[in-house]
Amino acid sequence: MLATQDVQVDEGRALGEELRQMLHEVDLQLLHAADLAARYSATPHYDRAGYASPIDSIRFNCHLTSNVDADLIAVGNNLGRMPESMQAVDQGEIGFAHLKAMARTADAVGSKFEESKLLPKALESSPGKFYYICHHYRHAADRKGFESEQAELVENRRLWVSTCEDGTVLISGTFDPEGGAAILTKLKPLARKSGAHDDRTREKRLGDALVELASGGRSQAQIQVTTSLETLRGLPGAAAADLELSSLPISAKTVERLACDCSITRIVLGSDSMVIDVGRARRTISGPARKALNVRDKHCTWPGCERPESWCAGHHLEHWARGGTNEQDNLTLLCGRHHWMVHEGHWQIARDSDGRMLTIPPTVTFGPPSHGPD
Hints:
Helices cover 49% and strands 13% of the residues. With 374 residues, the chain is α+β, with helices and mostly antiparallel strands. Among the domains are: 18-154, no CATH class; 159-214, no CATH class. The strands form 4 sheets. It has a 4-stranded mixed sheet.
């Protein structure tokens, strides 16, 4: 076994060295390509060929992205200002990625660029860390210019929202570092796995976290729901409900969850579509009842979940629309994800005689109960 492992180690070492040498040759070729790109950009060929810019011409004819083209031109234009760094690339001490960060820095600070201050940092840092260091250098060399760039990034904040035919909302955005950090600071704690049973992807957890954040944790968003009494009670044949700002109706189960402990304005219609009740935004579990629930449960009571009470909704084990009360024995705290699982996800949650919460997946049945968790 040891002999086999030794052979594998030797093979890995040889492959690693071959890879290092090959990528070093790629770095040298990229240096030459950068020089060619810069010299090409100084000619009028791209314009006469009908391209909007040298970058556009290189992108189309060399099958590259615009960012890669711009990096090549930036490095090529600054080769004369980075002779020692070019030598370090030639000797394999740094890579072309280091040179890109240095060239971008030289463009940003202009005459204040000093290769001698950056090269030692490049020699001891990975390309990613060196890129970070270059930003500190830019701030030190040209604070006003750096601040101006940061201000422009803030001005360029954008959020695109569109709605698909099935009601799905598509969101895409661009945020400055500060704005992005503020968003991630709020999202990441909410996107943590809620226990060993949590098999959601990172993208799914981030999506759920955004909805939870927008809801204020306890579903505190002010939401207007228009529904029939039959829908609210989950009766067969009842129509769906209408949700404000949504292009398509929502299901009875969603209405049920929102009405469980949500700050909603309800508009209830009778069988003849006449408004029979318009309720002000309020909580169905509020005041002393909610405080007592927080003290007792402290966090989401789904087994293995510890989402704090401030990010949980109060859930009726038997929904109030079907006669359930606000007595503590009928209430429990559930985080946004697990509250959804109980209503729309068709899981069941119940309290046993010892006060422990038991969960039953939707694929498991034990006969038709007279009534069960909503």
